[in-house]
Write a structure and sequence with these properties.
The protein is α/β, with parallel strands linked by helices. It has nine helices and five strands, in the order ααβαβαβααβαβαα. Strands 3-2-1-4-5 form a five-stranded parallel β-sheet, with helices on both faces. Strand 2, helix 4 and strand 3 form a beta-alpha-beta unit. Helix 1 packs across helix 7, helix 3 crosses helix 8 and helix 6 packs parallel to helix 7. It is globular. The chain starts with a helix and ends in an 8-residue tail after the last helix. About 40% of the residues are buried.
Amino acid sequence: MLYNNDYKERAFNMNYNLNLKKILNQIDKKKKPSLLLHSCCGPCSSYVITYLKDYFEITVYYYNSNIYPIEEYKHREYEQLRLLKALNIKYLDSIYDDEFNIVANGLEDLKEGELRCYNCIKYRMENTCVKAKILNFDYFATTLSVSPHKNALWINEIGLNLEDKYNVKYLVSDFKKEDGYKKSIEIAKEYNLYRQDYCGCKYSLKNRRNGYEQIK
């Protein structure tokens, strides 16, 4: 079930990029707040990290147990770590759990971009927010909005709700703006990062294969 209309309306009426810039303009760079940044992969995080690192003490949190198969998960994690080492950014380890299968249960036949995807975004962002709360981070955010295939309204609707629910500041954003996605491609090429050709889960992999191969 999607969040209530109050959060959806707030997110719908908000200029994410403008709000982000307002927050950044108010930050004292000599006293950077801490940011737990959920990242889906190295390439998507590349631009977001380079954009935010002058404003925040960033720790990247790679929580993505939706990624299938496990070998793909590990490959993307390796590339993420390689980028973070080059950029001198902290990393917070996570576990590969069964949470995605739980939130996707009963929604297996839906198309990309429907409720299953919403639930996937929500469970990863909520886990990040809870982790930020436990570890006393000032902010939490996600790199997901840098992709043109991700719904920025959903992402910010979820983030605003989680901010109120857990009392942790959410960094409103739409990182694809101002050529963010294009810049992420350029930075990924600079560091020779592996770029996957499907979102991550077994259903997106099946879609990439045009449905010809059965995913068990």
